[in-house]
Amino acid sequence: MLLIPLIGVFLISTKMYRNKTITDVNAVSDWSNRQLKSIALQTSVCTLFVSLIIFALYDFSNNQFQFVQEYHEISYFNFYLGVDGLSIYFVLLTTIIMPVSLLSNWTSISHNLKTYLITILLLETLLLSVFLVLDILLFYIFFESILPPFFILIGSFGSSNRVRASFYLFLYTLLGSLFLLLSIVTMSSITGTTDFDALYKTNFNYYTQLFLFIGICIAFAVKTPIIFLNTWLLKAHVESPLSGSIILAGIVLKLSLYGILRLILPLLPKAYINCTFLIYLIGVITIVYASISTLRTIDVKELIAYSSVSHAAVYLMGVFSNTIQGIEGGIALGLAHGFVSSGLFICAGGVLYDRSSTRLITYYRGIAQMMPLFSVIFFILCLGNCGVPLTLNFVGEFLSLYGAFERLPILGALASSSIIFSAAYTIYMFNRIAFAGSYSKFFIVNISDLNKREFYILLTLVLFTVALGIYPAPVLDGLHYSVTTLIYSVRSV
């Protein structure tokens, strides 16, 4: 599965040198662009099929790592690959979102196309590696290795202020992850190993756990991101190309969630249980601040990015609840947010912005008169963002808040305000875009409704959100064994 995107990178890097016999320069360019895009798409779809086969063959009655590949020849660390009941869902999310991100920018990027496609496929391999490696040092290496491709993606293909945004992303997350590296080096020096299985059998003393917890938390707080550490996220989302925003919201923001499940909950139980109040307090402040900031935002892409911060705080509180419902809900909300935020970014950046070249909500009015199909799908995605019943967001948000309320009732009740806030800013945004009077006077010509490509991309994301919202058992049942071991390992301390 990791090699398929790399094979795609090799094919793309060698493809453009063929068929030079065509004399018309434009014909050569169009032909080669179509060929390159089809190779990239076929590669990502093949990776998706392989991940679905792994999911079908996975034994959910066992909480051990499965499909393990071991390579001992590498010095300093062992190259282990494998999946368990937690990582299999993040792998599936990654392989589903990647073809969507490629299709979202299918027509809007034509310059340096080869660089763009290679960057996307490299990102897919690196992101999958984060979820598949079973060595803590390799986890850090792949966790950080996504930064150079993102730096290129935003810096080369973003909006007018793209260079500043790419530096914000790179420096913020690199500095935050320095503390993660120090924590990993400390664990390795104490135990003499970087293997996940061996580390799970160790028991650090309380003060060691506390210092390790602080270091790892700083890194994941930047990546989540929480309040006062989210400046990079807004700039990166607003200036990024559409595929970059989709990957950033759908997958990269889930790396911190996965890291918490892998590093903090099993390895540092005493520290995180004693720091739960502080984490919940930060989570509540993040929810309230991000939601109020979202209400006053007039840039549609920035509004969706701000809402990601609020939802991230909810699933952060869920996974720190030390309850089965909370942890399962946090993971379910993370997966749901990946589908819904990707859909909303396609609606905002791929449909509205591509047709009108503006992101300001002020200019959109009465879109439902011109684009009824778009308005219906946009409305369903907005309902998902609010956490309305019959969507996976509702399942995840309800279970996360249930777990938070069970752990600390007062802060859990305050965190429940996210339901009201998310409904307020999302429906307010939809109302201003779809209705709010007659069709906007700022547009001289009518803008067209969804084409087939856009419709099928958005329909896929809507179907995942609604189908898993009506019947969430494939996600929750599969998580059950792995989540139960996290709870027991904490309570046995």
UniProtKB/TrEMBL annotation:
Belongs to the complex I subunit 4 family. Core subunit of the mitochondrial membrane respiratory chain NADH dehydrogenase (Complex I) which catalyzes electron transfer from NADH through the respiratory chain, using ubiquinone as an electron acceptor. Essential for the catalytic activity and assembly of complex I. It is a multi-pass membrane protein. This is NADH-ubiquinone oxidoreductase chain 4. The chain crosses the membrane at residues 39-58, 78-103, 115-133, 139-157, 169-190, 210-234, 246-265, 271-291, 330-353, 373-396, 408-434, 455-473. It holds the Pfam family Proton_antipo_M. Its main location: membrane. It comes from Alectoria fallacina. It comes from the Eukaryota.
